[in-house]
From TrEMBL:
Residue ranges occupied by any Conserved hypothetical protein CHP03032 domain in the UniProt entry: 38-348
Alphabetically ordered keywords of this record: Repeat, TPR repeat
Biased composition (Polar residues): 1-11
Name of the molecule in the record: TIGR03032 family protein
InterPro entries: CHP03032, TPR-like_helical_dom_sf, TPR_rpt, Ycf3/AcsC/BcsC/TPR_MFPF
Entry-linked Pfam families: DUF4915 (PF16261), TPR_1 (PF00515), TPR_8 (PF13181)
Length: 498
């Protein structure tokens, strides 16, 4: 497998890289969390990590054990919400699309730091649904079922269409994009969609809002019967260990339906708006949100009884309802939508690394068995070039030079590698050598403005003022809007006039 990046290391691109690194650092600084020791110990004991979606912060967060603490690593998405994950797949609903990721183990070994990751979920497919306020979802065999909250229905896909409604509550008389009942939760039982939650038994535009504090429902979609009514903003129904669990979010509780009496039993009370539920061993993994002071959340039992509310992930013992551990976000994240257990210690999710996505192939066994496997020592000029770029961007200029030289030994007329080689030499103040290599670039491409500018820069460093001016002016003549060359020429003239 080969990663390719044909962009040259121009000064402008180096500046863009620095700006991106700064932006990433600022995003990291905007996310702050604390956790109990027990939280990290649980991740380590079970050999798991957690995927956490937060639409308010626009992030998919991975909580992973690293060196005895919990590492929170994130990827940016546009309003990530519903999610379903397994060892080999992660599917995520966003503002208007559903992203499907597949775990590609061979790609995990190519993520920096090398040999750290044990799973890599690579983006394989994206489907556009439009803004349906997508909520929970689940795979049934190879078919994705998802809650379409705006249109009050449970859907699958149909080729060429935004969605394919498969079920809607019996009290909903027609599809309406204005959210009549706030259908939100989905549970699978015996390999079929079976239970849903909604915030109201209403059939008018936004009708659920009038009695949101006590109008919620839990339904069996196989029989169209109500299991529970009068709930406070229920979410996240789950069939687990022969028991139907759900979150009564408006009260901040973990509940279950008594299998004998059918009663609503509160198993645990938590300090936040409960939404997002998964299980590991004897524990429930529950997402908590702070609850904003908005009309949607006003008047809930939780806001009237719990003055201090938290955002994060809480671990509750299914045996006695005791809180065993938590991960609490103190900055940057106020709401959690979904929480999923990943059976990997240190996974990553790749949604925007075009080099990795473009150079990783997932093939059927039939195709793979009929594909030539290169020798492990197989290499190409492109591989050395790409490795040189990576080393250069990591500040390892001497090592990068060796890779560029290896590339040029295999392909002497590889202009991007020759140019980058010259830039790297200049970076080490080896300007005479840099000029020699960059002049070779011009023999292949007489109009290579970046190489001409770089030659001028090296001449200026060597004190060859007139030569430097000649090359800067030549670069500007070829590319009149070349700001870097203009800046270099201006600096040269100012220095001469001092």
């Amino acid at each position: 497998m080969t990663e390719t990046n044909k962009q040259e290391l121009t000064p402008e691109q180096q500046e863009q890289n620095k700006n991106q690194e700064l932006a990433n650092q600022q995003q990291l600084e905007n996310l702050a969390s604390v956790h109990t020791n027990g939280f990290t110990e649980l991740l380590k004991y079970f050999g798991i990590s957690l995927a956490i979606s937060t639409y308010q912060a626009g992030k998919l967060i991975l909580a992973r054990e690293e060196d005895g603490v919990t590492n929170t690593h994130f990827r940016q998405f546009n309003k990530p919400m519903g999610m379903v994950a397994s060892a080999d797949r992660l599917t995520l609903g966003t503002a208007a699309q559903i992203w499907d990721f597949r775990n590609v183990p061979t790609a995990a070994h190519r993520i920096s730091p090398v040999k750290k990751h044990d799973a890599c979920y690579l983006m394989r497919d994206v489907k556009t649904t439009g803004d349906i306020d997508i909520h929970e979802m689940a795979w049934v065999d190879e078919e994705l079922w998802f809650i379409n909250t705006r249109f009050s229905c449970l859907c699958t896909f149909k080729p060429g269409f935004s969605f394919n409604p498969r079920w809607r509550p019996p009290f909903i008389t027609e599809y309406d994009m204005r959210d009549r009942c706030h259908l939100n939760g989905l549970a699978i039982r015996d390999g079929k969609p079976r239970y849903i939650t909604a915030l109201g038994e209403t059939d008018t535009e936004g009708g659920w809002r009038k009695n949101k504090a006590a109008g919620g429902i839990l339904m069996d979609i196989e029989s169209n019967e109500f299991i529970l009514r009068g709930l406070s903003m229920p979410h996240s129904p789950r069939w687990h260990n022969n028991k139907l669990w759900f979150l009564e979010s408006g009260r901040g509780t973990l509940n279950y339906v008594d299998p004998v009496t059918g009663e609503n039993i509160v198993h645990a009370e938590l300090p936040g708006f409960t939404r997002g539920l998964d299980f590991i061993g004897q524990y429930a993994v529950i997402g908590l949100s702070q609850v904003r002071e908005t009309a949607v959340f006003a008047g809930l039992p939780l806001t009237q009884t719990q003055p201090v509310r938290h955002s994060g992930v809480w671990i509750v013992d299914l045996k006695d309802g005791e809180i065993k551990a938590f991960l609490k976000f103190e900055k940057g994240v106020q709401e959690i939508f979904a929480v999923s257990v990943l059976p990997w210690k240190f996974p990553d999710v790749i949604n925007d690394d075009l080099n990795l996505l473009g150079s990783t192939y997932v093939l059927t066994d039939e195709v793979l068995n009929n594909t030539c496997q290169p020798d492990k020592n197989w290499s190409t000029a492109e591989i050395h070039f790409e490795e040189g770029n990576r080393l250069f961007n990591d500040g390892k200029v001497k090592e990068a030079i060796e890779k560029y030289k290896q590339c040029l030994e295999m392909m002497d007329n590889y202009v991007p590698a020759r140019y980058n080689y010259g830039v790297a030499l200049g970076n080490l103040d080896r300007h005479e050598e840099a000029i020699i290599e960059l002049e070779k670039v011009l023999k292949e491409d007489i109009g290579h403005a970046e190489a001409i500018n770089s030659i001028g820069f090296s001449h200026s460093k060597l004190g060859n003022t007139e030569k430097a001016r000649e090359y800067f002016e030549r670069a500007i003549q070829i590319r009149p809007n070349y700001e870097q060359a203009k800046s270099n020429l201006k600096a040269l003239n100012e220095k001469v006039n001092e």
